[in-house]
């Protein structure tokens, strides 16, 4: 079943769920006029972020076209992105 997500800016590496997403649910992102399909690798609550590509430890988390934090650890495509794997941009990892 396809779930809905929102990609705010073409530069973003996370999207936001607009429905409850369960592990293995598929979702579609349209980025740079290209459809990209992904599969959630864990449950993601409504309004939370999901990685739309692999993000390496220390890399910027980008939403709204802006850096909103950095990855505390490697984050896989389809993984829930939240305070457990993101830190403030000014904190050391």
SS elements, strand count: 10
> What's the average pLDDT?
92
* Assembly type: single chain
N→C terminal distance: 37 Å
CATH topology: Archaeosine Trna-guanine Transglycosylase, Chain: A, domain 4
Query: Tell me, what is the CATH class?
Result: Mainly Beta
**Rg over C-alpha atoms, rounded to the nearest angstrom:** 12 Å
Q: Which percent band covers the strand fraction?
A: 35-45%
Corresponding CATH architecture: Roll
How do the SSEs run, as a string of H and E?
A: EEEEEEEEEE
Proportion of residues in helical segments: under 10%
| Total tally of structural domains | 1
* Strand neighbour order, sheet with most strands: 2-3-6-9
Count of runs of 4 or more consecutive helical residues = 0
Explained architecture:
The chain is mainly beta and 93 residues long. The chain has a single domain (2-87), classed as Archaeosine Trna-guanine Transglycosylase, Chain: A, domain 4. The protein has no helices and 10 strands. Strand 2 (5-6) and strand 3 form a beta hairpin. The N and C termini lie far apart (37 Å). 27% of the residues are buried.
Write a concise synopsis of the structure shown:
With 93 residues, the protein is mostly beta strands. Helix content is 0%, strand content 40%.
